[in-house]
Write a structure and sequence with these properties.
heterodimer; A: mainly alpha; 11 helices; 0% strand; B: 351 residues; 6 strands; elongated
Chain lengths: 257, 351
Protein backbone atom coordinates (compact mmCIF):
# COMPACT_ATOMS: atom_id res chain seq x y z
CA UNK A 1 0.00 0.00 0.00
CA UNK A 2 2.83 2.32 0.91
CA UNK A 3 4.53 1.58 -2.45
CA UNK A 4 1.32 2.31 -4.33
CA UNK A 5 1.08 5.69 -2.62
CA UNK A 6 4.74 6.46 -3.23
CA UNK A 7 4.76 5.56 -6.91
CA UNK A 8 1.38 7.14 -7.57
CA UNK A 9 2.61 10.41 -6.12
CA UNK A 10 5.82 10.33 -8.16
CA UNK A 11 3.92 9.47 -11.31
CA UNK A 12 1.29 12.14 -10.77
CA UNK A 13 3.74 14.85 -9.85
CA UNK A 14 5.24 14.42 -13.32
CA UNK A 15 1.86 14.32 -15.04
CA UNK A 16 0.88 17.10 -17.38
CA UNK A 17 -2.33 17.67 -15.45
CA UNK A 18 -0.53 18.37 -12.21
CA UNK A 19 2.02 20.64 -13.82
CA UNK A 20 -0.77 22.42 -15.66
CA UNK A 21 -2.55 22.94 -12.32
CA UNK A 22 0.57 24.51 -10.83
CA UNK A 23 0.88 26.73 -13.90
CA UNK A 24 -2.78 27.65 -13.65
CA UNK A 25 -2.42 28.55 -9.99
CA UNK A 26 0.49 30.85 -10.77
CA UNK A 27 -1.55 32.37 -13.56
CA UNK A 28 -4.58 32.95 -11.37
CA UNK A 29 -2.47 34.50 -8.64
CA UNK A 30 -1.19 36.94 -11.22
CA UNK A 31 -4.72 37.39 -12.56
CA UNK A 32 -6.12 38.20 -9.15
CA UNK A 33 -3.26 40.65 -8.58
CA UNK A 34 -3.99 42.30 -11.92
CA UNK A 35 -7.77 42.50 -11.44
CA UNK A 36 -7.29 43.77 -7.89
CA UNK A 37 -5.25 46.66 -9.22
CA UNK A 38 -8.17 47.71 -11.39
CA UNK A 39 -10.63 47.02 -8.62
CA UNK A 40 -8.47 48.83 -6.10
CA UNK A 41 -10.22 51.64 -4.33
CA UNK A 42 -9.87 53.26 -0.96
CA UNK A 43 -7.04 50.98 0.16
CA UNK A 44 -9.05 47.89 -0.53
CA UNK A 45 -6.29 45.90 -2.21
CA UNK A 46 -5.86 43.09 0.31
CA UNK A 47 -9.56 42.34 0.43
CA UNK A 48 -9.80 42.41 -3.31
CA UNK A 49 -6.83 40.19 -4.06
CA UNK A 50 -7.71 37.71 -1.34
CA UNK A 51 -11.28 37.24 -2.43
CA UNK A 52 -10.47 36.92 -6.11
CA UNK A 53 -7.38 34.80 -5.39
CA UNK A 54 -9.28 32.42 -3.12
CA UNK A 55 -12.12 32.11 -5.59
CA UNK A 56 -9.88 31.29 -8.54
CA UNK A 57 -7.77 28.93 -6.41
CA UNK A 58 -10.88 27.11 -5.32
CA UNK A 59 -11.92 26.77 -8.93
CA UNK A 60 -8.63 25.15 -9.95
CA UNK A 61 -8.57 22.87 -6.93
CA UNK A 62 -12.12 21.81 -7.66
CA UNK A 63 -11.26 21.01 -11.28
CA UNK A 64 -8.19 19.12 -10.11
CA UNK A 65 -10.00 16.94 -7.60
CA UNK A 66 -12.88 16.02 -9.88
CA UNK A 67 -10.83 15.26 -13.01
CA UNK A 68 -7.44 13.83 -12.06
CA UNK A 69 -8.48 10.88 -9.84
CA UNK A 70 -11.09 9.62 -12.30
CA UNK A 71 -8.81 10.01 -15.29
CA UNK A 72 -5.95 8.20 -13.51
CA UNK A 73 -8.09 5.36 -12.24
CA UNK A 74 -9.58 4.83 -15.69
CA UNK A 75 -6.11 4.91 -17.21
CA UNK A 76 -4.84 2.29 -14.78
CA UNK A 77 -7.75 0.02 -15.64
CA UNK A 78 -7.32 0.57 -19.39
CA UNK A 79 -3.56 -0.01 -19.37
CA UNK A 80 -3.87 -3.00 -17.04
CA UNK A 81 -1.64 -1.55 -14.29
CA UNK A 82 -4.37 -2.21 -11.76
CA UNK A 83 -4.31 -5.98 -12.52
CA UNK A 84 -0.59 -6.04 -11.92
CA UNK A 85 -0.98 -4.28 -8.57
CA UNK A 86 -3.93 -6.39 -7.43
CA UNK A 87 -2.15 -9.60 -8.33
CA UNK A 88 0.47 -8.78 -5.68
CA UNK A 89 -1.96 -9.75 -2.91
CA UNK A 90 -3.00 -6.12 -2.49
CA UNK A 91 -6.62 -6.02 -1.42
CA UNK A 92 -8.95 -3.88 -3.49
CA UNK A 93 -10.04 -1.67 -0.63
CA UNK A 94 -6.39 -1.09 0.25
CA UNK A 95 -5.70 -0.10 -3.34
CA UNK A 96 -8.61 2.32 -3.20
CA UNK A 97 -7.44 3.72 0.12
CA UNK A 98 -3.92 4.14 -1.26
CA UNK A 99 -5.32 6.07 -4.19
CA UNK A 100 -7.46 8.18 -1.88
CA UNK A 101 -4.45 9.07 0.26
CA UNK A 102 -2.37 9.78 -2.86
CA UNK A 103 -4.83 12.26 -4.27
CA UNK A 104 -5.32 13.92 -0.92
CA UNK A 105 -1.54 14.38 -0.60
CA UNK A 106 -1.35 15.83 -4.12
CA UNK A 107 -4.36 18.02 -3.43
CA UNK A 108 -2.85 19.24 -0.16
CA UNK A 109 0.45 20.03 -1.89
CA UNK A 110 -1.35 22.02 -4.57
CA UNK A 111 -3.44 23.78 -1.93
CA UNK A 112 -0.34 24.64 0.06
CA UNK A 113 1.36 25.98 -3.05
CA UNK A 114 -1.65 28.13 -3.91
CA UNK A 115 -2.06 29.49 -0.38
CA UNK A 116 1.65 30.16 -0.06
CA UNK A 117 1.70 32.08 -3.36
CA UNK A 118 -1.34 34.07 -2.32
CA UNK A 119 0.17 34.81 1.06
CA UNK A 120 3.47 35.84 -0.51
CA UNK A 121 1.80 38.20 -2.92
CA UNK A 122 -0.72 39.68 -0.52
CA UNK A 123 1.13 39.96 2.73
CA UNK A 124 4.80 40.12 1.92
CA UNK A 125 4.78 42.26 -1.21
CA UNK A 126 1.63 44.31 -0.78
CA UNK A 127 -0.09 44.41 2.54
CA UNK A 128 2.87 43.81 4.87
CA UNK A 129 0.55 42.58 7.55
CA UNK A 130 1.98 39.13 8.33
CA UNK A 131 -0.23 38.71 11.38
CA UNK A 132 -3.19 38.45 9.01
CA UNK A 133 -1.51 35.60 7.16
CA UNK A 134 -2.64 33.18 9.84
CA UNK A 135 -6.17 33.66 8.59
CA UNK A 136 -5.16 32.05 5.29
CA UNK A 137 -4.64 28.85 7.27
CA UNK A 138 -8.43 28.82 7.71
CA UNK A 139 -8.71 28.64 3.95
CA UNK A 140 -6.20 25.81 3.80
CA UNK A 141 -7.98 23.84 6.49
CA UNK A 142 -11.48 24.31 5.12
CA UNK A 143 -10.41 23.58 1.56
CA UNK A 144 -8.62 20.44 2.65
CA UNK A 145 -11.74 19.13 4.37
CA UNK A 146 -13.88 20.15 1.44
CA UNK A 147 -11.45 18.34 -0.92
CA UNK A 148 -11.68 15.25 1.28
CA UNK A 149 -15.44 15.18 0.84
CA UNK A 150 -15.36 15.89 -2.88
CA UNK A 151 -12.85 13.09 -3.44
CA UNK A 152 -15.02 10.63 -1.54
CA UNK A 153 -17.97 11.66 -3.75
CA UNK A 154 -15.81 11.15 -6.85
CA UNK A 155 -14.81 7.67 -5.65
CA UNK A 156 -18.38 6.82 -4.75
CA UNK A 157 -19.79 7.83 -8.13
CA UNK A 158 -16.92 6.32 -10.09
CA UNK A 159 -17.09 2.95 -8.39
CA UNK A 160 -20.86 2.92 -8.82
CA UNK A 161 -21.13 3.84 -12.50
CA UNK A 162 -17.63 3.24 -13.92
CA UNK A 163 -17.91 6.13 -16.37
CA UNK A 164 -15.09 8.65 -16.45
CA UNK A 165 -16.68 11.85 -17.79
CA UNK A 166 -20.08 11.28 -16.21
CA UNK A 167 -18.42 10.90 -12.80
CA UNK A 168 -16.82 14.34 -13.07
CA UNK A 169 -20.06 15.90 -14.27
CA UNK A 170 -22.15 14.26 -11.54
CA UNK A 171 -19.67 15.33 -8.86
CA UNK A 172 -19.81 18.90 -10.12
CA UNK A 173 -23.62 18.77 -10.12
CA UNK A 174 -23.61 17.37 -6.57
CA UNK A 175 -21.33 20.18 -5.49
CA UNK A 176 -23.50 22.88 -7.01
CA UNK A 177 -26.71 21.38 -5.64
CA UNK A 178 -25.07 21.36 -2.21
CA UNK A 179 -24.57 25.12 -2.51
CA UNK A 180 -28.30 25.58 -2.99
CA UNK A 181 -29.21 23.28 -0.10
CA UNK A 182 -30.55 26.06 2.07
CA UNK A 183 -33.24 26.59 -0.56
CA UNK A 184 -34.29 22.94 -0.06
CA UNK A 185 -34.79 23.64 3.62
CA UNK A 186 -36.80 26.77 2.84
CA UNK A 187 -39.02 24.79 0.46
CA UNK A 188 -39.47 22.07 3.08
CA UNK A 189 -40.55 24.65 5.64
CA UNK A 190 -43.04 26.25 3.28
CA UNK A 191 -44.40 23.07 1.67
CA UNK A 192 -48.00 22.14 2.44
CA UNK A 193 -47.74 18.55 1.32
CA UNK A 194 -46.06 16.18 3.81
CA UNK A 195 -44.39 14.08 1.11
CA UNK A 196 -42.85 17.17 -0.50
CA UNK A 197 -41.67 18.33 2.90
CA UNK A 198 -40.13 14.92 3.64
CA UNK A 199 -38.41 14.80 0.26
CA UNK A 200 -36.76 18.21 0.67
CA UNK A 201 -35.82 17.55 4.27
CA UNK A 202 -34.30 14.23 3.25
CA UNK A 203 -32.40 16.02 0.47
CA UNK A 204 -31.24 18.68 2.90
CA UNK A 205 -29.84 16.22 5.42
CA UNK A 206 -28.46 13.53 3.12
CA UNK A 207 -26.69 15.85 0.71
CA UNK A 208 -23.25 17.16 1.58
CA UNK A 209 -23.25 20.86 2.39
CA UNK A 210 -20.11 22.62 1.23
CA UNK A 211 -21.31 25.98 2.53
CA UNK A 212 -19.99 24.98 5.95
CA UNK A 213 -16.47 25.16 4.59
CA UNK A 214 -16.89 28.69 3.39
CA UNK A 215 -14.80 30.82 5.77
CA UNK A 216 -13.96 33.57 3.28
CA UNK A 217 -15.64 36.29 5.32
CA UNK A 218 -13.56 35.51 8.39
CA UNK A 219 -10.42 35.34 6.30
CA UNK A 220 -10.74 38.58 4.38
CA UNK A 221 -12.07 40.61 7.30
CA UNK A 222 -9.65 39.01 9.76
CA UNK A 223 -12.30 37.57 12.06
CA UNK A 224 -11.55 34.65 14.33
CA UNK A 225 -13.38 31.33 14.08
CA UNK A 226 -14.42 29.36 17.13
CA UNK A 227 -12.28 26.27 17.67
CA UNK A 228 -15.44 24.24 18.19
CA UNK A 229 -16.55 25.16 14.68
CA UNK A 230 -13.27 23.81 13.31
CA UNK A 231 -13.75 20.61 15.23
CA UNK A 232 -17.32 20.16 14.01
CA UNK A 233 -16.20 20.85 10.46
CA UNK A 234 -13.60 18.11 10.79
CA UNK A 235 -16.11 15.67 12.29
CA UNK A 236 -18.62 16.34 9.54
CA UNK A 237 -16.06 15.97 6.73
CA UNK A 238 -14.43 12.89 8.29
CA UNK A 239 -17.68 11.03 8.96
CA UNK A 240 -19.15 11.86 5.56
CA UNK A 241 -15.95 10.90 3.71
CA UNK A 242 -15.48 7.70 5.69
CA UNK A 243 -19.02 6.48 5.07
CA UNK A 244 -18.83 7.27 1.38
CA UNK A 245 -15.42 5.63 1.15
CA UNK A 246 -16.69 2.43 2.77
CA UNK A 247 -19.59 2.28 0.29
CA UNK A 248 -17.12 2.94 -2.56
CA UNK A 249 -14.87 0.15 -1.32
CA UNK A 250 -17.83 -2.25 -1.25
CA UNK A 251 -18.75 -1.27 -4.83
CA UNK A 252 -15.15 -1.53 -5.95
CA UNK A 253 -14.78 -4.94 -4.37
CA UNK A 254 -17.82 -6.35 -6.05
CA UNK A 255 -17.52 -4.81 -9.50
CA UNK A 256 -15.78 -6.08 -12.60
CA UNK A 257 -12.77 -4.06 -13.52
CA UNK B 1 -32.94 21.86 -64.41
CA UNK B 2 -33.19 20.58 -60.86
CA UNK B 3 -29.75 21.84 -60.01
CA UNK B 4 -30.66 25.25 -61.43
CA UNK B 5 -33.76 25.40 -59.24
CA UNK B 6 -31.71 24.38 -56.24
CA UNK B 7 -29.18 27.06 -57.08
CA UNK B 8 -31.93 29.70 -57.35
CA UNK B 9 -33.40 28.53 -54.04
CA UNK B 10 -30.00 28.68 -52.42
CA UNK B 11 -29.42 32.23 -53.70
CA UNK B 12 -32.91 33.21 -52.53
CA UNK B 13 -32.30 31.84 -49.05
CA UNK B 14 -28.94 33.57 -48.82
CA UNK B 15 -30.53 36.89 -49.85
CA UNK B 16 -33.38 36.42 -47.34
CA UNK B 17 -30.91 35.52 -44.62
CA UNK B 18 -28.76 38.52 -45.46
CA UNK B 19 -31.75 40.87 -45.56
CA UNK B 20 -33.21 39.55 -42.31
CA UNK B 21 -29.83 39.61 -40.66
CA UNK B 22 -29.19 43.17 -41.83
CA UNK B 23 -32.51 44.48 -40.47
CA UNK B 24 -32.39 42.61 -37.17
CA UNK B 25 -28.71 43.21 -36.53
CA UNK B 26 -29.03 46.92 -37.25
CA UNK B 27 -31.79 47.16 -34.69
CA UNK B 28 -30.10 44.93 -32.12
CA UNK B 29 -26.73 46.67 -32.42
CA UNK B 30 -28.36 50.06 -31.95
CA UNK B 31 -30.35 48.92 -28.94
CA UNK B 32 -28.01 46.38 -27.45
CA UNK B 33 -26.98 48.53 -24.52
CA UNK B 34 -30.50 49.20 -23.40
CA UNK B 35 -31.44 45.55 -23.70
CA UNK B 36 -28.42 44.13 -21.93
CA UNK B 37 -28.04 46.83 -19.33
CA UNK B 38 -31.65 47.68 -18.68
CA UNK B 39 -31.56 46.46 -15.12
CA UNK B 40 -30.17 43.79 -12.87
CA UNK B 41 -32.51 41.53 -11.01
CA UNK B 42 -30.77 41.64 -7.68
CA UNK B 43 -32.52 38.65 -6.00
CA UNK B 44 -31.91 36.52 -9.11
CA UNK B 45 -28.28 37.62 -9.39
CA UNK B 46 -27.74 36.83 -5.73
CA UNK B 47 -29.05 33.29 -6.22
CA UNK B 48 -26.99 32.78 -9.36
CA UNK B 49 -23.86 34.21 -7.76
CA UNK B 50 -23.97 31.33 -5.29
CA UNK B 51 -23.51 28.94 -8.19
CA UNK B 52 -21.18 30.91 -10.40
CA UNK B 53 -18.94 31.88 -7.53
CA UNK B 54 -19.18 28.53 -5.74
CA UNK B 55 -20.80 30.18 -2.76
CA UNK B 56 -17.98 32.71 -2.44
CA UNK B 57 -20.16 35.75 -1.80
CA UNK B 58 -17.32 38.14 -1.21
CA UNK B 59 -15.69 37.15 -4.50
CA UNK B 60 -19.02 37.75 -6.22
CA UNK B 61 -19.27 41.12 -4.50
CA UNK B 62 -15.78 42.02 -5.64
CA UNK B 63 -16.65 40.92 -9.15
CA UNK B 64 -19.67 43.22 -9.38
CA UNK B 65 -17.63 46.01 -7.84
CA UNK B 66 -15.03 45.32 -10.52
CA UNK B 67 -17.75 45.61 -13.19
CA UNK B 68 -18.85 48.94 -11.73
CA UNK B 69 -15.27 50.25 -11.68
CA UNK B 70 -14.66 49.16 -15.26
CA UNK B 71 -18.05 50.53 -16.34
CA UNK B 72 -17.13 53.94 -14.96
CA UNK B 73 -14.03 54.06 -17.11
CA UNK B 74 -16.31 54.39 -20.16
CA UNK B 75 -17.07 57.90 -18.88
CA UNK B 76 -13.45 58.81 -19.55
CA UNK B 77 -13.81 61.36 -16.79
CA UNK B 78 -11.06 64.00 -16.84
CA UNK B 79 -8.54 63.60 -14.07
CA UNK B 80 -6.28 66.55 -13.38
CA UNK B 81 -4.49 68.61 -10.74
CA UNK B 82 -4.38 72.38 -10.99
CA UNK B 83 -1.04 74.09 -10.42
CA UNK B 84 -0.81 77.34 -8.52
CA UNK B 85 1.65 80.07 -9.56
CA UNK B 86 4.13 78.82 -6.97
CA UNK B 87 4.04 75.46 -8.67
CA UNK B 88 2.17 73.71 -5.87
CA UNK B 89 -0.96 71.74 -6.29
CA UNK B 90 -3.96 73.95 -5.81
CA UNK B 91 -6.92 71.79 -6.62
CA UNK B 92 -7.58 68.22 -7.51
CA UNK B 93 -10.78 67.38 -9.29
CA UNK B 94 -12.87 65.35 -6.90
CA UNK B 95 -13.66 62.23 -8.88
CA UNK B 96 -11.13 59.53 -8.34
CA UNK B 97 -11.04 57.33 -11.38
CA UNK B 98 -9.07 54.18 -10.64
CA UNK B 99 -8.35 53.32 -14.22
CA UNK B 100 -5.40 54.21 -16.37
CA UNK B 101 -7.70 55.48 -19.04
CA UNK B 102 -7.94 59.14 -18.15
CA UNK B 103 -7.97 61.97 -20.61
CA UNK B 104 -4.30 62.47 -20.95
CA UNK B 105 -3.50 65.77 -22.51
CA UNK B 106 0.05 66.38 -23.58
CA UNK B 107 1.20 69.93 -23.82
CA UNK B 108 3.44 70.87 -26.67
CA UNK B 109 4.41 74.23 -25.13
CA UNK B 110 7.98 74.72 -24.05
CA UNK B 111 7.81 77.42 -21.39
CA UNK B 112 7.04 75.93 -18.00
CA UNK B 113 4.85 78.80 -16.89
CA UNK B 114 2.40 77.93 -19.67
CA UNK B 115 1.35 74.86 -17.77
CA UNK B 116 -1.67 75.25 -15.57
CA UNK B 117 -2.43 71.67 -14.64
CA UNK B 118 -1.19 68.13 -14.90
CA UNK B 119 -2.48 64.60 -15.06
CA UNK B 120 -0.86 61.18 -14.73
CA UNK B 121 0.38 58.97 -17.51
CA UNK B 122 0.08 55.20 -17.70
CA UNK B 123 3.36 54.83 -15.79
CA UNK B 124 2.17 57.34 -13.19
CA UNK B 125 4.39 60.06 -14.67
CA UNK B 126 3.14 63.65 -14.58
CA UNK B 127 1.90 65.09 -17.86
CA UNK B 128 1.54 68.88 -17.88
CA UNK B 129 -0.86 70.84 -20.02
CA UNK B 130 -1.86 74.41 -20.89
CA UNK B 131 -4.95 76.52 -20.19
CA UNK B 132 -6.40 75.66 -23.59
CA UNK B 133 -6.31 71.95 -22.85
CA UNK B 134 -7.59 72.55 -19.35
CA UNK B 135 -10.59 74.41 -20.75
CA UNK B 136 -11.32 71.44 -22.98
CA UNK B 137 -11.19 69.15 -19.98
CA UNK B 138 -13.39 71.41 -17.89
CA UNK B 139 -15.92 71.56 -20.70
CA UNK B 140 -15.90 67.79 -20.93
CA UNK B 141 -16.22 67.47 -17.15
CA UNK B 142 -19.22 69.78 -17.17
CA UNK B 143 -20.78 67.95 -20.09
CA UNK B 144 -20.42 64.59 -18.33
CA UNK B 145 -21.92 66.00 -15.15
CA UNK B 146 -24.92 67.42 -16.97
CA UNK B 147 -25.54 64.61 -19.43
CA UNK B 148 -24.22 61.54 -17.61
CA UNK B 149 -26.97 59.36 -19.04
CA UNK B 150 -25.60 60.02 -22.53
CA UNK B 151 -22.42 58.27 -21.51
CA UNK B 152 -23.49 55.56 -19.08
CA UNK B 153 -26.65 53.90 -17.84
CA UNK B 154 -26.63 55.21 -14.28
CA UNK B 155 -29.32 52.78 -13.17
CA UNK B 156 -27.18 49.86 -14.28
CA UNK B 157 -24.20 51.37 -12.47
CA UNK B 158 -26.06 51.80 -9.19
CA UNK B 159 -27.63 48.36 -9.54
CA UNK B 160 -24.09 46.98 -9.68
CA UNK B 161 -23.18 48.91 -6.55
CA UNK B 162 -26.33 47.70 -4.79
CA UNK B 163 -25.73 44.10 -5.82
CA UNK B 164 -22.11 44.19 -4.75
CA UNK B 165 -23.10 45.48 -1.32
CA UNK B 166 -25.99 43.03 -1.05
CA UNK B 167 -23.63 40.12 -1.65
CA UNK B 168 -21.22 41.36 0.96
CA UNK B 169 -22.85 43.82 3.37
CA UNK B 170 -19.43 44.44 4.93
CA UNK B 171 -18.17 45.79 1.64
CA UNK B 172 -18.49 49.47 2.50
CA UNK B 173 -15.84 50.33 -0.07
CA UNK B 174 -18.27 49.80 -2.89
CA UNK B 175 -20.65 52.29 -1.26
CA UNK B 176 -17.83 54.83 -0.97
CA UNK B 177 -17.07 54.23 -4.60
CA UNK B 178 -20.69 54.74 -5.66
CA UNK B 179 -20.95 57.86 -3.50
CA UNK B 180 -17.79 59.22 -5.08
CA UNK B 181 -19.43 59.05 -8.49
CA UNK B 182 -22.45 61.19 -7.64
CA UNK B 183 -22.18 63.75 -10.42
CA UNK B 184 -25.68 65.17 -10.52
CA UNK B 185 -29.06 65.16 -8.81
CA UNK B 186 -30.26 62.07 -10.66
CA UNK B 187 -27.25 60.05 -9.57
CA UNK B 188 -27.61 61.42 -6.05
CA UNK B 189 -31.18 60.10 -5.90
CA UNK B 190 -30.08 56.69 -7.09
CA UNK B 191 -27.20 56.55 -4.62
CA UNK B 192 -29.51 57.45 -1.75
CA UNK B 193 -31.73 54.54 -2.86
CA UNK B 194 -28.74 52.20 -2.76
CA UNK B 195 -27.84 53.43 0.72
CA UNK B 196 -31.40 52.91 1.91
CA UNK B 197 -31.32 49.31 0.64
CA UNK B 198 -27.99 48.77 2.30
CA UNK B 199 -29.35 50.10 5.59
CA UNK B 200 -32.35 47.77 5.39
CA UNK B 201 -29.98 44.83 4.99
CA UNK B 202 -27.38 45.89 7.55
CA UNK B 203 -28.12 48.92 9.72
CA UNK B 204 -24.97 51.02 10.14
CA UNK B 205 -24.69 54.66 11.14
CA UNK B 206 -22.31 55.34 8.26
CA UNK B 207 -24.85 54.33 5.63
CA UNK B 208 -27.49 56.70 6.95
CA UNK B 209 -24.95 59.44 7.45
CA UNK B 210 -23.89 59.13 3.80
CA UNK B 211 -27.52 59.18 2.67
CA UNK B 212 -28.08 62.28 4.81
CA UNK B 213 -24.97 63.95 3.46
CA UNK B 214 -26.06 63.39 -0.16
CA UNK B 215 -29.61 64.52 0.59
CA UNK B 216 -28.25 67.62 2.30
CA UNK B 217 -25.63 68.77 -0.17
CA UNK B 218 -26.54 67.15 -3.50
CA UNK B 219 -30.34 67.02 -3.29
CA UNK B 220 -30.78 70.00 -0.94
CA UNK B 221 -33.63 68.06 0.62
CA UNK B 222 -33.09 69.14 4.22
CA UNK B 223 -36.04 67.38 5.83
CA UNK B 224 -35.06 64.10 4.23
CA UNK B 225 -31.42 64.59 5.21
CA UNK B 226 -32.43 65.14 8.82
CA UNK B 227 -34.45 61.91 8.80
CA UNK B 228 -31.35 60.02 7.71
CA UNK B 229 -29.16 61.76 10.27
CA UNK B 230 -31.68 60.95 12.99
CA UNK B 231 -31.50 57.27 12.03
CA UNK B 232 -27.71 57.43 12.10
CA UNK B 233 -27.78 59.09 15.52
CA UNK B 234 -29.76 56.19 16.98
CA UNK B 235 -26.66 54.02 16.68
CA UNK B 236 -24.48 53.86 19.76
CA UNK B 237 -21.22 54.05 17.85
CA UNK B 238 -22.13 57.23 15.95
CA UNK B 239 -19.35 59.86 16.11
CA UNK B 240 -20.11 63.34 17.41
CA UNK B 241 -19.62 65.09 14.06
CA UNK B 242 -22.86 63.52 12.78
CA UNK B 243 -24.76 65.39 15.46
CA UNK B 244 -22.90 68.56 14.44
CA UNK B 245 -23.90 68.16 10.80
CA UNK B 246 -27.46 67.38 11.82
CA UNK B 247 -27.58 70.66 13.73
CA UNK B 248 -25.97 72.46 10.82
CA UNK B 249 -28.68 71.18 8.48
CA UNK B 250 -31.15 73.47 10.30
CA UNK B 251 -29.12 76.51 9.38
CA UNK B 252 -29.16 75.44 5.74
CA UNK B 253 -32.92 75.86 5.52
CA UNK B 254 -32.86 78.78 7.94
CA UNK B 255 -34.47 76.92 10.84
CA UNK B 256 -32.25 78.58 13.39
CA UNK B 257 -34.74 78.13 16.19
CA UNK B 258 -34.73 74.36 15.70
CA UNK B 259 -30.92 74.37 15.66
CA UNK B 260 -30.86 76.36 18.92
CA UNK B 261 -33.34 73.98 20.55
CA UNK B 262 -31.30 70.97 19.40
CA UNK B 263 -28.03 72.40 20.75
CA UNK B 264 -29.66 73.31 24.05
CA UNK B 265 -30.93 69.71 24.30
CA UNK B 266 -27.44 68.40 23.56
CA UNK B 267 -25.98 70.63 26.24
CA UNK B 268 -28.40 69.27 28.76
CA UNK B 269 -27.38 65.72 27.94
CA UNK B 270 -23.63 66.08 28.01
CA UNK B 271 -21.22 65.92 30.93
CA UNK B 272 -18.15 66.38 28.74
CA UNK B 273 -16.69 69.80 29.55
CA UNK B 274 -14.92 70.18 26.19
CA UNK B 275 -18.03 69.32 24.22
CA UNK B 276 -20.12 71.62 26.37
CA UNK B 277 -17.78 74.54 25.65
CA UNK B 278 -17.95 73.84 21.91
CA UNK B 279 -21.73 73.61 22.07
CA UNK B 280 -21.94 76.90 23.94
CA UNK B 281 -19.94 78.57 21.20
CA UNK B 282 -22.15 77.07 18.55
CA UNK B 283 -25.28 78.03 20.43
CA UNK B 284 -24.15 81.64 20.58
CA UNK B 285 -23.41 81.58 16.86
CA UNK B 286 -26.90 80.27 16.01
CA UNK B 287 -28.54 82.73 18.37
CA UNK B 288 -26.66 85.66 16.80
CA UNK B 289 -27.48 84.49 13.32
CA UNK B 290 -31.11 84.01 14.27
CA UNK B 291 -31.37 87.46 15.90
CA UNK B 292 -29.61 89.20 13.02
CA UNK B 293 -31.93 87.60 10.47
CA UNK B 294 -34.98 88.46 12.56
CA UNK B 295 -33.66 92.03 12.89
CA UNK B 296 -33.26 92.25 9.09
CA UNK B 297 -36.89 91.16 8.64
CA UNK B 298 -38.10 93.66 11.23
CA UNK B 299 -36.04 96.40 9.57
CA UNK B 300 -37.64 95.66 6.20
CA UNK B 301 -41.11 95.72 7.75
CA UNK B 302 -40.48 99.02 9.46
CA UNK B 303 -38.62 100.90 6.69
CA UNK B 304 -40.15 99.14 3.66
CA UNK B 305 -36.71 98.42 2.25
CA UNK B 306 -34.07 95.75 2.91
CA UNK B 307 -30.92 96.60 4.79
CA UNK B 308 -27.80 97.47 2.78
CA UNK B 309 -25.38 96.19 5.41
CA UNK B 310 -25.45 95.06 9.03
CA UNK B 311 -24.57 98.58 10.12
CA UNK B 312 -28.14 99.56 9.20
CA UNK B 313 -29.35 97.35 12.02
CA UNK B 314 -27.02 99.09 14.48
CA UNK B 315 -28.00 102.53 13.19
CA UNK B 316 -31.69 101.65 13.48
CA UNK B 317 -31.12 100.63 17.10
CA UNK B 318 -31.79 96.92 16.73
CA UNK B 319 -28.30 96.11 18.02
CA UNK B 320 -25.68 98.07 19.93
CA UNK B 321 -22.91 96.42 17.88
CA UNK B 322 -22.81 93.72 15.20
CA UNK B 323 -22.13 90.52 17.14
CA UNK B 324 -18.77 88.85 16.65
CA UNK B 325 -18.89 85.72 14.49
CA UNK B 326 -17.33 83.02 16.70
CA UNK B 327 -17.46 80.27 14.05
CA UNK B 328 -17.12 81.84 10.60
CA UNK B 329 -15.24 84.83 9.23
CA UNK B 330 -17.86 87.43 10.16
CA UNK B 331 -21.56 88.02 9.65
CA UNK B 332 -22.45 89.77 6.41
CA UNK B 333 -25.62 90.73 4.57
CA UNK B 334 -26.22 88.65 1.44
CA UNK B 335 -28.35 90.98 -0.68
CA UNK B 336 -28.83 88.33 -3.36
CA UNK B 337 -30.65 85.95 -1.04
CA UNK B 338 -31.80 88.62 1.42
CA UNK B 339 -30.31 87.00 4.49
CA UNK B 340 -27.55 87.39 7.04
CA UNK B 341 -24.85 84.79 6.58
CA UNK B 342 -21.67 83.70 8.28
CA UNK B 343 -19.06 84.28 5.60
CA UNK B 344 -16.77 81.29 5.81
CA UNK B 345 -19.53 78.81 6.54
CA UNK B 346 -21.61 80.10 3.64
CA UNK B 347 -18.67 79.63 1.26
CA UNK B 348 -18.02 76.12 2.49
CA UNK B 349 -21.63 75.08 2.09
CA UNK B 350 -21.80 76.42 -1.43
CA UNK B 351 -18.67 74.60 -2.45
Amino acid sequence: MYSVIKYSIIENLRSKFYLASIGMILFIIWLSHYSSQINYNYGNYTLSILTLGMYFTKLILFAFIIFLPVSNLSQEIETGTIYFLLSKKLKRYKYLAAKYITYMILYAALLFFAVFSLWLLTYVFVSKRPEMSLKLLYFMYSEFLSGMMILSIVFFIYTAIKAQVVTSILTAITYFISIMLNSAKEIAEKAQDASVRCFYLFLYYIFPNFSYFNLEKNIVYGRAVDIKYFFMMFCYAAIFSLILFIISAVFFNSREL
Amino acid sequence: MHSFKAFILFIFLVVVLFGASFVTKSYLSANEKSIVKEFISIPFSMQMSKLFFMNQHIAASQYYQFLAVVYCTTLNYPHYHLISKEGKEEHHNEQKCDCNDHDHHHSEGSAENKYVAYTHGSNNEDIYFTQEKLDEMLAREENIKQYTSNYIDTKYFYDLIDLSNALDPDNDYVLFFGRGWVLNVNMARQMVGVLEHSYERTPKWRTMFDAGWIALYALRDYERARKYFEKAMKHEDVPSFVVGIYTHSFSMDKKYESAIKHIAYQMLNTKDHGLRTRLEKKLKWYQDLFLLNRGAIEFEKRYKRPIQSLKDLVNAGFFKVVPEDCVGKGFVWDSKNSEVISKNIYDLVNK
